[in-house]
Amino acid sequence: MTDWQAAACGLPFSLALRGGLVGRLESSAYTRWVKTLPCCCGCERPADDPHHPKLRGFAVAGSKVPDWWTIPLSRACHDRLHHDVQAWEAAHGAQSFHALMTLTQAIVEGVITCK
Question: Mind listing the pLDDT tens digit for each residue in 55-67?
Fold first, then answer.
């Protein structure tokens, strides 16, 4: 759904996105790049299992946040996060912080370019 389509439905784009009306925003190239990073937990293992954080506002059943918000995690750390999100965040920080740091690194390294 484009901005004008969301507007035609009477919704701002942000509400249409959060409501699941836009569809999944995917980038296999970006998630492949995230897999080249070390795990963000500091364990130094490869991030072979990028995680899509569960962020407020994207609670539509069965939906994931856009791929550009993935965080680099190893399989073991990904399992630990899903086992106990609060404990993981207490030890490593908010998932949104790691998503922002990863996205910023992608911009600085030219993985994502801005006009």
Answer: 766 655 556 788 8
- Closest to 112 measured CA to CA, from 49, 55, 31, 37: 31
Residue 81 CB burial class (10 angstroms; 0-12, 13-18, ≥19): buried
The dihedral formed by the CA atoms of 12, 13, 16 and 22, expressed in degrees to the nearest 10:
160
Q: Is the pTM of this model over 0.70?
A: yes
DSSP secondary structure letters along 18-68: HTT-S-----HHHHHHHTTSBPTTTT--B--S-B----TT---TT----GG
Q: Where are the domains of the chain?
A: 25-108
